[in-house]
Design goal:
Blueprint lengths: L2 H80 L5 H8 L4
């Protein structure tokens, strides 16, 4: 290559290289800002999910309590139905009647 052409091309190559480095740096910075912005949004999503899980746990606790109460009532009813039925004489004796 002749020195005249090299003198013309060298500043052009340096300018393109420097401009490319600036563009790459700007692109990296933009990606970093985008990740940071998404990171804060992801943190909010995690907080919302944690709140939703806490609400669901409270709701499941209420359902569990209701189920236990219903189970106790069913057991009580089953025990009442299993008891032998008293006869008329037994009922009168319980009421204090004597013939």
């Amino acid at each position: 290559m002749s020195p005249e052409i090299l003198e013309l091309v060298a500043p052009l190559i340096a300018l393109v290289g420097f401009g490319g480095a600036i563009l790459i740096g700007m692109r990296m910075r933009y990606r970093h800002l985008e990740r940071t912005r998404l990171g804060s949004g992801a943190q909010q999503d995690v907080e919302r999910l944690a709140d939703a899980v806490d609400k669901l746990r409270a709701e499941v606790g209420l359902l569990r309590d209701g189920f236990l109460e219903l189970n106790e009532r069913v057991e009580f009813t089953e025990r009442l139905l299993e008891r032998p039925r008293s006869t008329e004489a037994d009922s009168d004796a319980l009421r204090g009647r004597q013939d």
